[in-house]
Amino acid sequence: MRAETAWHWPRLRLRLRRNRASQSPDRTAAGFALFLMMTLALAGRGADTSSTSWSPSRSLRLQALVSRAAEETITRFSGQGLKPEELAVTVVDLTEPARPDWASYRGDVAIYPASVVKLFYLVAAHRWMEDGRLEDTPELRRAMSDMVVESSNDATHYVVDLLTGTTSGPELTDDALRAWADQRNAVNRYFAAQGFTNINVNKKPWGDGPYGRETQAIQRFQPSRNWLTTEATARLLSEIATGRSVTPERSARMRSLLARDVYATVRDAEDQTHGFTGIALLEPRREGVRLWSKAGWTSQTRHDAAYLELPDGRKLVTVVFTTGHAQERGIIPSVVRVALEGLGKQ
Fold first, then answer.
1. Is 330 helix (H, G, I), strand (E, B) or coil?
2. Does pLDDT of 112 surpass 70?
3. Which of 42, 107, 203, 325: disulfide with 230, CB 3.0–4.6 Å?
4. How far apart, in whole angstroms, are the C-alpha atoms of residue 226 and residue 312?
5. DSSP-assigned letters across all residues of 26-80
6. What is the predicted pLDDT for the residue at 55?
7. Are the C-beta atoms of residues 91 and 65 closer than 8 Å to each other?
């Protein structure tokens, strides 16, 4: 997997609740549970109505495990300079999909998501198609596949253009730029209506850009970058995994693009299958695990959002974001190993 260029635009002040991790666990838990449940009614038009009974809860058992996974990983990589503020983790136990449990470590902190944001564009595209706002064409399917399977930025640009009715290009006048930016916020508005908070999903990922009006928008409007939390990402991936994203059929189509054969021949040690969560399944080798995932990698960040099904029937979502240690392959699998081993003992 080719790392994206990390663009170091000035971090401007966001109108977000800061340091939510310092709030009481009950308040944080209530917020996450609320936005998980809201999706069932709002995003599930045409989906299985039994999803309305899905009531996620914050698990003290799982919280202790996630906290331990984070603490052990920070200690293990302290020699490489890993600090607590450079790691965020959310785990959702979907073994009983009608009664999922979740827990987080700094899971409500907004972090630049790199290519993980492509999950949100994938879901939005399927929602738009389901609603008749976007035509399901072979070219769109090709772009969605390349966006997720190959993590192509060019394909993502095409999908974002279709979702928002905007294109990149030369600079615009002030009035035209404001109108352009309002259109570009279409995906943000959709996820806000579903109860997602503390995220921004209105930027294209770049390798050698941005230019023109894209740069104008970054300089003019806040937030200036994409942002995700591990909690929001875990929620989205949980919905895809359980068939609650858009419709069961569309969730299945999304899962097909996220499927990773971790036991296949390794051709690129940094691909999305073998360079991230997959390391925890191969070192040591765990037979029979099924993996669906979307990674993100820049010169400053290394992230993975993964759904795993284990041979013993356990199912879980793990989302790990790291900053400042993009070349350190061991942090993400360290967290996942502790989670897997701990759940196996419970």
1. coil
2. yes
3. 107
4. 37
5. HHHHHHHHHHHHHHHHHT-TTS-GGGGG---EE-HHHHHHHHHHHHHHHHHTGGG
6. 59
7. yes
Give the list of residues 6+ apart from residue 228 with CB closer than 8 angstroms, or none. Answer: 110, 111, 113, 116, 117, 120, 199, 201, 321
Distance separating alpha carbons of residues 195 and 38, to the nearest angstrom:
6
Answer whether the bond into residue 170 is a cis peptide, omega within 30°. Answer: no
pTM strictly above 0.70: yes
pLDDT in tens, 16-72: 333 333 333 344 444 444 444 444 333 333 433 333 334 578 899 999 999 999 999
Distance between CA atoms of residues 255 and 267, nearest Å: 22
CA dihedral of 246, 276, 311, 94, whole degrees rounded to 10: -40
**Rg (alpha carbons) of the chain, rounded to whole number:** 19
Instruction: Report CA-CA distances (Å) from 48 to 45, 198, 206, 246.
Output: 8, 28, 37, 10
Residue 210, preceding bond cis, omega within 30 degrees? yes
Q: Is the dihedral of CA 318, 254, 238, 346 positive or negative?
A: negative
Domains within the chain, CATH numbers bracketed: 20-345 (3.40.710.10)
Each residue of 267-310: pLDDT tens digit? 899 999 999 999 999 999 999 999 999 999 999 999 999 999 99
- Determine the 3-state secondary structure of 183 from DSSP: helix
* Amino acid in position 238: S
- Give the number of residues written for the chain: 346
> Shortest CA distance to 240 belongs to which of 288, 293, 185?
293
